[in-house]
């Protein structure tokens, strides 16, 4: 039966990662995949994670099955990290399942949406993380896009976004990135979040908040402010979170799917469906990564150390957002790159065309996604001159 299969293209972002590895140019720069890198270009295991892992090795007492929702201590701590001391938590309206990464969470959410409404359409930003589209389609949901990023003015298309969302059906879902929008880095401001939240309430669509970069934009709390405002305003919400970036746990696959329901009783019903979905896909999540997160969040000392490390990562990203703008201007580049400083998280579009992107790759071994999305964390003091020089040449 396998002979009927046709080969399919691989993920272009992950493909870029492989191509970069094979490039022998000693000056090569990887601005592709969204993984944090330090000044040396490494993605180290966080110190707080190392300590929590050492603790776990000593203190783990069983490898018995963990249960459908995974580590319940982790789930509760994630709810607090996401929502703070929110009234929805006090009213016992939130239920969370630990999932295999943010992607696992999104897939669980997709199946959950399908159980709510088989005909639901999920609305995603133009552009969005490519996996969003394939993942919801794979779950049999319709996917439509709403205007989001203004490539020309390097800003939000906020009025167009709101106009489009006014006509979304009540049974549909609108996915919004909580912070550090992937791929544009362009986020809603506080006022815009308010308008969006009121619209969700008035129109009656359900919001799915994808929060994969909490702490990478402004701070842990500020990056969740839009999410919390939404939770203040609407009765129901789906939250897909990931610990891949902020805890640097990428390959351990740690995330969570949280459902906020109208009241404690409906939350129990939602939870039963959530867990039934989990059971039908992978039964239970892996234990290691979530245990590390729970250990860190359960210790004041480790939490403090993690906050410091997160501040370092965010600080480096923001420092280089400023430096890219300044250095390109100093080098005489005419185009205005000040938008990079107004955007958040690891990603921004440089606004280059296909030919310029190709030249950067073939002539300079500088790798970025075909949309000209760069991972700012790939730039360092060590490769900045080389990057600026290459940019000056391809922008001539
Ligand atoms: N959502 C967004 C917007 C992302 O950029 C990513 C990828 O890193 C994810 C979700 C999923 O992250 P992961 O499955 O690695 O936890
Ligand atoms: O957009 C990125 O680069 C990150 C990492 O299939 C990623 O979100 C990219 C592709 C993929 C999984 C993770």
TrEMBL record:
Which cofactors, by name? pyridoxal 5'-phosphate
Keyword vocabulary terms for this entry: Aminotransferase, Pyridoxal phosphate, Transferase
- Tell me the enzyme class: transferase
Q: What is its EC number?
A: 2.6.1.-
GO cellular-component term (any): cytosol
One of this protein's GO BP terms? L-phenylalanine biosynthetic process from chorismate via phenylpyruvate
Q: Which domain of life is it from?
A: Bacteria
- Subunit architecture: Homodimer.
- What is stated as this protein's family in its record? Belongs to the class-I pyridoxal-phosphate-dependent aminotransferase family.
Instruction: Return the protein name.
Output: Aminotransferase
Species annotation: Pseudoalteromonas xiamenensis
């Amino acid at each position: 039966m396998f002979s009927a299969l046709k080969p399919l293209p691989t993920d272009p972002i992950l493909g870029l990662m492989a191509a970069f590895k094979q490039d022998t140019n000693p000056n090569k720069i990887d601005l592709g995949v969204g993984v944090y890198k330090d000044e040396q270009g490494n993605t180290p295991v966080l110190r707080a994670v190392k300590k929590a892992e050492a603790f776990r090795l000593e203190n783990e007492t069983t490898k018995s099955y963990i249960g459908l929702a995974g580590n319940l201590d982790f789930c509760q701590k994630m709810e607090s990290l996401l929502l703070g001391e929110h009234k929805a938590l006090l009213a016992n309206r939130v239920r969370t399942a630990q999932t295999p990464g943010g992607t696992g969470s999104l897939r669980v959410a997709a199946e959950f949406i399908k159980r709510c409404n088989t005909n639901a359409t999920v609305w995603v930003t133009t552009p969005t993380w490519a996996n969003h589209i394939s993942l919801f389609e794979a779950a049999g949901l319709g996917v439509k896009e709403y205007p989001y990023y203004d490539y020309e003015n390097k800003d939000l298309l906020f009025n167009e976004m709101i106009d489009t969302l006014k006509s979304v059906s009540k049974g549909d879902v609108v996915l919004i990135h909580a912070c550090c929008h992937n791929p544009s880095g362009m986020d809603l401001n506080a006022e815009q979040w308010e308008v969006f939240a009121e619209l969700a309430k008035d129109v009656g669509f359900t919001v799915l908040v994808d929060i994969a970069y909490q702490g990478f934009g402004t701070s842990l709390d500020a990056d969740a402010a839009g999410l919390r405002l939404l939770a203040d305003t609407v009765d129901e919400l789906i939250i897909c979170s990931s610990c891949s970036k902020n805890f640097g746990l990428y390959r351990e696959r740690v995330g969570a799917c949280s459902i906020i329901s109208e009241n404690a009783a409906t939350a129990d019903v939602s939870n039963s469906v959530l867990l039934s979905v989990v059971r039908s896909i992978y039964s239970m999540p892996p234990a290691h990564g979530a245990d590390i997160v729970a250990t860190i969040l359960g210790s004041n000392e480790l939490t403090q150390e993690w906050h410091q490390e997160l501040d370092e990562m965010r600080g480096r990203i923001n420092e280089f957002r400023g430096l890219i703008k300044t250095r390109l201007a100093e080098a005489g580049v005419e185009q205005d790159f000040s938008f990079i400083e107004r955007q958040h998280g690891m990603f921004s579009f440089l606004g280059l065309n296909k030919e310029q992107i190709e030249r950067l790759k073939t002539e300079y071994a500088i790798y970025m996604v075909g949309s000209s999305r760069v991972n700012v964390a790939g730039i360092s003091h060590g490769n900045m001159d080389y990057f600026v020089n290459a940019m000056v040449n391809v922008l001539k």
